[in-house]
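yo, Peptidase M15A C-terminal domain-containing protein is done. seq:
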Amino acid sequence: HAVNSCHYGGATGSDGALAIDFGNEKNGNVIIQSALNCGAKSARCENASGATVACSDSSANHIHISDRNCDRN
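structure:
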């Protein structure tokens, strides 16, 4: 994860971790919808490079969820 990403608190890094990755991409769409329903800023399946991909894509290896308070993606 990049410095100043939501995983490390965003631009200032002063708010603690504001993102999480789940490794259950087979249930990705359910996890994404649940996160968004609970107020997450964003939720998506990603590949090992961090690129957004469909959860059904063979390269999908995690679901990334960012807290609504993060100033990054």
